[in-house]
Amino acid sequence: MNAGIVGSTGYGGIELYRLLANHPYTEKCIMYTSSQQGGAYSEVYPHVSDLMDDPLRDVEEAEGIDTMFIAAPPGVSAELTPLLSKKGIRVIDLSGDLRLKKSGEYEKWYGRTAAPEEMTEAAVYGLSEINREKIRNADILSNPGCYPTASLLGLAPLLKHQQADTGSIIIDAKSGVSGAGRKAGLGTHYSELNENLKVYKPGEHQHTPEIEQQLSEWAAGPVTISFTPHLVPMTRGILTTMYVQLNEPVSTESLLDSYRTFYENDPFVRIRKPGNYPQTKEVTGSNFCDIGLKVDERTGRAVIAAVIDNLMKGAAGQAVQNYNLMNGWDERTGLKFVPMYP
Ligand SMILES: NC(=O)C1=CN([C@@H]2O[C@H](COP(=O)(O)OP(=O)(O)OC[C@H]3O[C@@H](n4cnc5c(N)ncnc54)[C@H](OP(=O)(O)O)[C@@H]3O)[C@@H](O)[C@H]2O)C=CC1
Ligand SMILES: CC(=O)N[C@@H](CCC(=O)OP(=O)(O)O)C(=O)O
């Protein structure tokens, strides 16, 4: 099986290379660029010297590829996916281009022209644990956003079991700076970021409709959330802390039991014990999503904490998990990493 990476020079691209280089069923990995054709990949990333010195190529020349991973800014996949599909190449898109199904939503939140409707319709939303059966048959896979992955995995059991007051959901999210990509601007300059913490895009972040779309499907009715992301001075990691009013009283122990049952066949979701809340460092470099929670009996709210590595379960890791499912392989193939610690 041969794979290609569009956007290979970015953070999502280099993380995909790290995974595919060790993937037993991927013979070749071809690296594409829109700006640095001809140069060796190891010139962009010297840490892969002697491992990947192949020249970077132009995607227009793509051939002999079975699956193309697209890890490029918004708008690229909307244009490229129809062309690749026509060539019979399966697409796994890490951007937000194919995630929003409702007409007008992409234009509203991303401020640009949406992909052709038939592409968005054909794209399967790749939240692996929830959509496994559809993913197995996908030719176009839309990989979830980093914040939506942590938020949705943390909320799925409550929503699917109709235990949540769906008008009450607050998601307070924090991300490491690699989430902004390699070419991020001034806001990610060391001296702006170091010893600092800030809110950005409260109520207007592009992942809001993606989370609402999935929650509404589970709740079988419209769900509106309050979603506030924060930028944290660390390289990798996302922590989402979610506050949900419960419909009926339930104990922490019993809610944790129902989460454990819900995810019992999902090797990458780990549910913590009562009183144990996951930390971003505990999943770094791995494809795990770790979840801890407490029912605050005083307020009747569940407080749920979910952590992921934004470049792994939030991007390249989940993309490879979906690649495995699409090819009928064990979904853990090439992903059996113990998290890096400390
Ligand atoms: N970073 C993260 O944690 C996550 C990122 N994502 C999404 O994945 C995508 C990639 O993000 P990330 O790797 O962080 O971003 P980066 O900015 O690090 O890299 C993006 C890469 O895209 C390439 N690119 C730019 N313009 C074009 C173009 N017109 N055509 C083709 N390629 C282009 C660039 O490489 P070159 O100039 O060589 O072509 C660049 O290296 C984004 O859509 C992002 O939103 C999703 C989940 C998490
Ligand atoms: C820290 C940080 O800046 N994170 C990025 C995540 C972007 C992303 O993943 O964008 P799409 O999934 O929409 O392509 C952001 O908040 O915009």
UniProtKB/TrEMBL annotation:
Keywords: Amino-acid biosynthesis, Arginine biosynthesis, Cytoplasm, NADP, Oxidoreductase. Gene3D superfamilies: Dihydrodipicolinate Reductase, domain 2, NAD(P)-binding Rossmann-like Domain. GO terms for molecular function: N-acetyl-gamma-glutamyl-phosphate reductase activity; NAD binding; NADP+ binding. InterPro entries: AGPR (IPR050085), AGPR_AS (IPR023013), AGPR_dimerisation_dom (IPR058924), AGPR_type-1 (IPR000706), NAD(P)-bd_dom_sf (IPR036291), Semialdehyde_DH_NAD-bd (IPR000534). It catalyses: N-acetyl-L-glutamate 5-semialdehyde + phosphate + NADP(+) = N-acetyl-L-glutamyl 5-phosphate + NADPH + H(+). One of its GO terms (biological process) is L-arginine biosynthetic process. It is found in: Cytoplasm. Signal peptide: none annotated. GO terms for cellular component: cytoplasm. Its EC number is 1.2.1.38. It is an enzyme of class 1 (oxidoreductase). Its main location: cytoplasm. Pathway: Amino-acid biosynthesis; L-arginine biosynthesis; N(2)-acetyl-L-ornithine from L-glutamate: step 3/4. It holds the Pfam family Semialdhyde_dhC_1. Residues 2-138 form the Semialdehyde dehydrogenase NAD-binding domain. SUPFAM superfamilies: Glyceraldehyde-3-phosphate dehydrogenase-like, C-terminal domain, NAD(P)-binding Rossmann-fold domains. Catalyzes the NADPH-dependent reduction of N-acetyl-5-glutamyl phosphate to yield N-acetyl-L-glutamate 5-semialdehyde. Belongs to the NAGSA dehydrogenase family. Type 1 subfamily. This is N-acetyl-gamma-glutamyl-phosphate reductase.
